[in-house]
């Protein structure tokens, strides 16, 4: 591998390991959010549901370990990072129905004119003892496209978030391995 490629590949690891004095989850969220700096702002996106089936039936639940959100030129980005090297199946779609918590059925109020539901399966947002893996399960973001986000389900192998958006506009979904990440980009209003 060329020397320049090695330096480029290792630079983010070195930068994230050196000089950090903030709590571990905050540092992880900051590092994830920093990845929005150089992005493609010309994507067309969709308002239709996007779905990816789990890699194979019987797959063990993927553990959601971090969620970050940030604004970039032309869109807001929400990154869901999993402890494993792969991502679970997912379904992402706008809903006009009331949003409810999965266990209780309680209604959930979300700021914004639209609601984008992000569902992962099989997944969990807790460890083997039932302790939450995320400190913030509700966040008021105030970004141009994404106003807030709430975890509404972490039950029986399903994790579901709802993103309150200013308008039900075009979005795109990207996923990657090592660590497993699902990235949702929501375009700003024109």
Sequence-ordered SSE layout with sheet pairings:
Elements: H1 3-17, H2 24-34, E1 50-52, E2 62-72, E3 75-82, E4 89-95, E5 114-121, E6 123-124, E7 138-140, E8 146-155, E9 158-165, E10 171-176, E11 181-187
Parallel strand pairs: 2-6
Antiparallel strand pairs: 1-4, 2-3, 3-11, 4-5, 5-9, 7-8, 8-9, 10-11
Give a structural overview.
- With 190 residues, the protein is mainly β.
- The chain has one domain: Immunoglobulin-like.
- Helix content is 14%, strand content 38%.
- The chain contains two helices and eleven strands; from the N terminus they run ααβββββββββββ.
- The protein has helices at 3-17, 24-34; strands at residues 50-52, 62-72, 75-82, 89-95, 114-121, 123-124, 138-140, 146-155, 158-165, 171-176, 181-187.
- The protein has a six-stranded antiparallel beta sheet with strand order 1-4-5-9-8-7, with no helix packed on it. A five-stranded mixed beta sheet has the order 6-2-3-11-10.
- A hairpin with a 2-residue loop joins strand 8 and strand 9 (158-165).
- It is globular, with a radius of gyration of 17 Å.
Sheet with most strands? 6 strands, antiparallel
Question: Reading side by side through the largest sheet, how are the strands ordered?
Answer: 1-4-5-9-8-7
The total domain count is: 1
Q: Terminal Cα separation, in Å? A: 43 Å
3D shape: globular
Mean pLDDT: 82
- Percent range of helical residues: 10-25%
CATH class reads: Mainly Beta
Beta-strand percent range: 35-45%
Instruction: Find the count of extended strands (DSSP E, 2+ residues).
Output: 11
CA gyration radius, whole angstroms: 17 Å
């Amino acid at each position: 591998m060329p020397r320049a490629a090695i330096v480029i590949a290792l630079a983010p690891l070195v930068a994230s390991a050196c000089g950090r004095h903030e709590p571990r989850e905050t540092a992880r969220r900051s590092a994830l959010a920093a990845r929005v700096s150089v992005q493609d702002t010309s994507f067309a996106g969709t308002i239709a549901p996007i779905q990816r089936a789990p890699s194979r039936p019987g797959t063990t639940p993927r553990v959601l370990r971090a969620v970050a959100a940030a604004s970039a030129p032309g869109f807001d980005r929400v990154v869901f990072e999993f402890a494993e090297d792969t991502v679970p199946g997912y379904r992402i779609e706008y809903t006009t129905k009331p949003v409810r918590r999965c266990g209780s059925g309680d209604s959930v109020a979300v700021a914004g004119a639209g609601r984008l539901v992000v569902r992962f399966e099989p997944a969990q947002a807790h460890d083997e003892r039932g302790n939450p893996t995320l400190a913030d399960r509700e966040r008021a973001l105030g970004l141009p496209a994404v106003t807030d986000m709430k975890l509404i389900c972490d039950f029986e192998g399903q994790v579901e978030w709802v993103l309150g958006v200013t308008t039900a506009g075009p979005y795109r979904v990207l996923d990657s391995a090592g660590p497993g990440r699902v990235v949702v980009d929501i375009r700003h209003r024109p």
